[in-house]
Amino acid sequence: MEGSLFAAFPNGHGHANCTAVLDAEEKITESSTGIGIGFACGMFFSFVPQILKLSRRKSAIGISPLFSFCSTSMGIATFLGAAILQTQKFQCCTKLGHDRCGVTLVPLASLAVQLVCTSTVWLLVCTFTLRAHRLAHGINVFINPSDARIGNTDVGVNDVLPSLRVIKGLLTLWTSIIVVYLTLTLLFLYFFGANGKQYGVLGKVIASIGTVITTVQFLPQIATTFRLKDPGSFSLVTLAIQCPGSLGWASYLAFSANTNITVWLAPMATGAFQLILLIMCIVYTLRNRRLRSGPGGISSTIPTESQPLLSTQHGQ
């Protein structure tokens, strides 16, 4: 046991370790730093349309809570895993200098941006879903048939909203994940130190969990969009920005020298699922627009709580 939470350099080898880090960081070029900063900025601006659409509609209908939960869980795992693996760089900051430190932590900063954005979307989804349930509480609610008729079927609130049990369960699980990750990190750091082999293994395990979630996170959203036949509050602009980025990044990794398939498989799968979802959203958007413009057309397949679309059961 190290006996100190931040005893990263036992046996007096801190200077040698930081020298090794410095030598490795000298290989970082300005172009790679620029790519990292560009990725962080692109990540932020790609989420802006989704956040604005949710805020404007005040509705999360059309967004799968499980998809949003997976996105923010992936953000937590990838950020924390990367932070654990770069703990030595944190402790070498004073020796490397703040300018050099900033350069080395650009990739971590981009993951932090991703975490903040996905968590913001997740909390908005939960907030507006809970709000919708409060509006519908105690009423045999149906969406106005003129706004929700698909063929001859009237869509009830339970058909477009996830249950309260699901939302509260995911919120509880999300909070538990954060607590468990942080507790494990502090315990491993205390008992093994930042340079301990076990601490590095923990970082790799958490990062691997993030990679697995990244690979499958879009499947619940694809299922939700297919079921509702409408993108609802899901932003096509955000998807249109992120899809080429994922496919481009995966292609870059796939054709890079000495790159293992496990490195580019997750972003390639993400890009493929994003492309499928983008095509679905475009098709359903054009279809619904055509239905609205036709004789007796509907005003929208999926309602929002920002409009007076809720009424008691049809005919009452």
Question: What would your notes on this structure say?
Answer:
The longest helix is centred in the C-terminal third of the chain and has 33 residues, at about 260-295. With about 325 residues, this protein is an all-alpha fold. Helices cover about 70% and strands about 0% of the residues. The protein has a two-stranded antiparallel ribbon. The chain is built from 14 helices and two strands; from the N terminus they run αααααααβαααααααβ. It is globular and about 70 Å long. Helix 2 runs antiparallel to helix 13 (about 235-255) and helix 3 packs antiparallel against helix 11. It has helices at about 15-25, 30-55, 65-85, 85-90, 95, 100-105, 105-135, 145-150, 155-160, 165-190, 195-215, 220-230, 235-255, 260-295; strands spanning about 140-145, 310.
Could you report the average pLDDT, rounded to the nearest whole number?
Answer: 74
Largest sheet: 2 strands, antiparallel
Rg calc: 23 Å
Q: Ends: how far apart?
A: 71 Å
Share of β-strand residues = under 5%
Characterize the quaternary organization of these chains.
Answer: single chain
Number of E-state strands: 2
Low-confidence stretches: 1-16, 138-155, 305-316
Structural class computed from helices and strand pairing: mainly alpha
Query: How large is the count of helical segments?
Result: 14
Spell the H/E element sequence.
HHHHHHHEHHHHHHHE
Helix content: over 70%
Strand order of the largest sheet: 1-2
Task: Give the overall silhouette.
Answer: globular
